[in-house]
Design goal:
With 130 residues, the chain is mainly α. The chain has two domains: 64 residues, Arc Repressor Mutant, subunit A; 37 residues. Strands 1-2 form a two-stranded antiparallel ribbon. Strand 1 and strand 2 form a beta hairpin.
């Protein structure tokens, strides 16, 4: 998996990398149990501080997306985090509220938003019954 960092971006490097890993998992480009590069290897390839990579891996592990297997490396975790269904639903509702607020402020209609969501959702790998 190739990751890219835009040093000219106003988005912090750790956030760029975290979002790329999240997206790769959500889109199925990184599968369950896929091994990620070591902190040292990825920091060398991207020419960034190893602490930045370690911070991203720690954050994504805390979110239940990655798991560290001591002596083996960092891997994509099994789907369906430790969060309860209610907690996952509440988290999604907060994200949806933010998304819809932005869509309204940008002047989109409900129908346009439904079409956009339908088109974009086809690009993601959905879990059955999680």
């Amino acid at each position: 998996m190739d990751f890219n960092i835009d040093v000219a971006s106003r988005t912090p490097i750790y956030r760029q990398l975290a979002e790329q890993i999240r997206s790769a998992i959500a889109r199925g480009r990184l599968q369950e149990n896929s091994r990620l590069p070591s902190v040292r290897d990825l920091s060398r390839r991207l020419v960034i501080n190893p602490n930045t990579v370690a911070r991203v891996y720690t954050e994504l592990e805390r979110d239940g997306l990655l798991v560290t297997r001591h002596g083996l490396g960092v891997f994509v975790a099994s789907p369906g985090s430790d969060l309860t269904r209610k907690a996952r639903r509440e988290r999604l509702m907060l994200l949806l509220d933010s998304f819809f607020t932005e869509a309204v402020l940008l002047g989109f209609t409900a129908e346009e938003v439904r079409e956009f969501v339908q088109d974009r959702s086809a690009q993601f790998q959905w879990q059955a019954g999680v």
